[in-house]
Amino acid sequence: MRLALLTDLHANREALAACLAHAAQQKADQYAFMGDFVGYGADPAWVVQTVMDYVARGAIAVQGNHDYSVTRPARPQMHAEAREVIEWTRGQLAPAQLDFLAELPLTRQLGNMLFVHASAYDPIKWEYVTGVEQAERSLRATASKLVFSGHVHAPALFRRADDGRVGKHQPSPNSRLVLQPQHQYLAIPGAVGQPRDANNAACYALYDDATRELCYFRVPYDHGAAARRVIGAGLPIVFAMRLVEGI
Questions:
Q1: Would you identify the family this protein belongs to, as annotated (predicted)?
Q2: Rounded mean pLDDT of 65-72?
Q3: Mean pLDDT score, 127-147
């Protein structure tokens, strides 16, 4: 199985289309979407419908905090500009699309792999896994050998060795890593729709369960067009600038 791993799509049609086309070129035969299909971007209906179509064909999908928020009262922790986009997004989605987001699970299991938007330790708390401490907490919460998650908008890989020690690896663009069966890993592919690591190219990853090879990809796309859509929709300009600057 060649599994494409996509997270934090954030209503960015151009970025998602580019990543899906790239994954098809890589001969991906399964897809996992790790949440945050809406928020920030200008094409929530197209993005959600695309994910729904993939799920109908057998893809995996879990709920992100923006997906959760768009189907419920806004959380006080969410900053004002993000709440503005969430409220706008509700009016852009069809009832079936809102139902799809509301009914998504927080986690999914496939063999020895666990899929979650944030931390496996307490998924509904939406903890950011930004360092070794958070990664260890997430990994210790599951017996799965591989945890795939998102939420932090930058690619990363954590390894919990068979002796319990946890370390972090910063994958470089288009890097290929072989995961050892005796260790436990937490892989964050980076954001499809809003990268925040000073590189505006979209991020996703591909895992081959036969070779145990994990590949991180950067996919250039028309971020200018995506930014213009944000501005044209009347959404906060900061979210257009993030697409251009990659921060």
A1: Belongs to the metallophosphoesterase superfamily. YfcE family.
A2: 94
A3: 97
Nearest CA to 64 out of 54, 75, 56 is that of 75
Given the DSSP bridges, would you call strands 30-33 and 156-160 parallel, antiparallel or unpaired? unpaired
CB count, 10 Å around CB of 237? 12
Cα–Cα distance measured from residue 247 to residue 232, given in angstroms and rounded to the nearest whole number: 21
Alpha carbon of residue 230 to chain centroid: 20
- How many domains, in total, are found in the chain? 1
pTM of the model: 0.96
Region 8-12 average pLDDT: 98
Q: Residue 75 and residue 69: Cα distance in Å, rounded? A: 7
Question: Where on the phi/psi map is residue 197: left (φ > 0), alpha (ψ -120 to 50), or beta?
Answer: alpha
State the Cα–Cα distance between residues 189 and 163, nearest whole angstrom.
25
pLDDT of amino acid 80: 83
Radius of gyration of the chain measured on its C-alpha atoms: 17
- Cβ neighbours of residue 130 closer than 8 Å, sequence gap 6 or more: 152
Query: 174 falls in which pLDDT band (50, 70, 90)?
Result: confident
From residue 158, alpha-carbon distances to 24, 73, 153 in Å are 27, 34, 15
For the purposes of burial, counting CB atoms within 10 Å of the CB of 59, is it exposed (0-12), middle (13-18) or buried (19 or more)?
Answer: middle
Tell me the average pLDDT of the chain: 96
**Cα 186 versus chain centre, distance:** 13
What is the extent of the structural domain holding 110? 2-245
CATH classification at residue 187: 3.60.21.10
pLDDT at 173: 87
Query: Residues with Cβ < 8 Å from 123, sequence gap 6 or more?
Result: 106, 107, 116, 117
Task: Work out whether strand 166-169 and strand 113-116 pair parallel, antiparallel, or are unpaired.
Answer: unpaired
